[in-house]
Design a protein that fits this description.
Mean pLDDT: 82
Number of strands: 10
Strand content: 25-35%
Oligomer: single chain
CATH superfamily: P-loop containing nucleotide triphosphate hydrolases
Low-confidence stretches: 1-14, 250-254
Order of helices and strands: EEEHEEHEHHHHHEHEHEEHH
Radius of gyration: 17 Å
CATH topology: Rossmann fold
Number of helices: 11
Largest sheet: 6 strands, mixed
Length: 254
Amino acid sequence: MTDVALSPKPAAATSGAALLMVEGLQAWYGESHILHGVDFDVREGEVVTLLGRNGAGKTTTLKSIMGIVPQRTGSVRFDGQELIGRTSDKIARAGIAFCPEERGIFASLDVQENLLLPPVVRPGGLSVEQIFELFPNLKERLHSSQGTKLSGGEQQMLAIGRALMARPKILLLDEPSLGLSPRLVGEVFALIRGLASEGLTILLVEQNVKQGLGCADRGYLLSTGSVVMTGSADELLADPAVIDSYLGGRSNGS
């Protein structure tokens, strides 16, 4: 990380209005009822991590916020605006950027071409030059195709870089450590901590408990589509129920 600033970092928020407020969120894939009244909030300047086993509803929660899952009810309020009923493009233009589990970059395009095709253009987004200052590894791979020459960590950085070009108010990250070696996992989470320290609000889905909570202010534990536990990152890391009862006794995401 370099000194390219996103915005002033607010003090760690423990009270006050939420930037993102999810209340009673329910979602379906066809006839399958996945989310059963999910409630949580994310305050400006926070990193909040959603935890849970596979199938707990974490990814569906992010996709429901973004309007990718059309069958949803409840309330998702972002920056004072209700998002339920809005389309994904309008939600993105409101200031939410989403990096999906599959990263969403184009294998047929090189690094620069991917960066020049941001999913949403918003005023004040970072330039390509600023993205290269944040991620010097990407500049070294400027004309590399992501599908053949970029490491998993570099592909993740490219996906995040594309999102930052839209100048989001909040970044949704889905399983950023998925498929990465331990060394690259460390690099990606160092990146996430750096972005948070520069003022970016982040909602993170992650199975790697230690890493996911290690960069978070607070966490929510999901099980079968409902929030079953919440607390500060330190509280959840110190609670054996988080690992033993809901995460299968694994703290490293393996």
